[in-house]
Amino acid sequence: MQIIQNHNDNRPDPASLQENRNLFLGILLIAAGGLWLLKNFGMLSPRAFDMIFSWPSLVTVIGAYLLCLHQWIWGGILAGVGICLLIAQIVGMPMPVIWLLLPLLCIGIGMAILLRKNA
């Protein structure tokens, strides 16, 4: 008798993904509202608020969201690129985004190829 393995055994169940999605979005909305309140009451500087609500932060959040949905490759790439762009913004690196984005994109695609080959 031959046992056939199902290759879908490693996938999380849809209920778990829905729970992760709801948890992530709920925490994200609570954090965004709390930060917005802090800014409105003058407890958060406008520079910090602008840095938190910037497009590098959006890329990082989208990457984190994909990681919560167990999409490891694209989530890791987006989160990594977003974090690098945030660090560049915090340190005040006066460079075009393309100087950072293209090398990071090459690294991310290379990692995706290697991880997909091993999976």
Describe the fold and architecture.
This protein has 119 residues and is mainly alpha-helical. It has a domain at 45-119. Helix content is 76%, strand content 0%. It contains five helices and no strands. Helix 3 (55-68) packs antiparallel against helix 4 and helix 4 packs antiparallel against helix 5. The protein is flat, with a radius of gyration of 19 Å. Residues 1-7 have low confidence and may be disordered.
Number of strands: 0
Please bin the fraction of helical residues: over 70%
Which value, in Å, is the CA radius of gyration? 19 Å
Mean pLDDT: 80
In percent, how much strand structure appears in the residues? under 5%
Terminal-residue CA separation: 27 Å
Largest sheet: none
How would you classify the helix and strand content by structural class? mainly alpha
Number of helices: 5
Low-confidence stretches: 1-7
The protein's oligomeric status is: single chain
Spell out the blueprint of helices and strands.
Blueprint: H1 14-40, H2 46-52, H3 55-68, H4 72-91, H5 97-118
Helix pairs in contact: 3-4, 4-5
Looking at this protein, list some descriptive labels.
disordered N terminus, 119 residues, mainly alpha
Kindly summarize this structure in a few lines.
The protein has 5 helices and no strands. With 119 residues, it is an all-alpha fold.
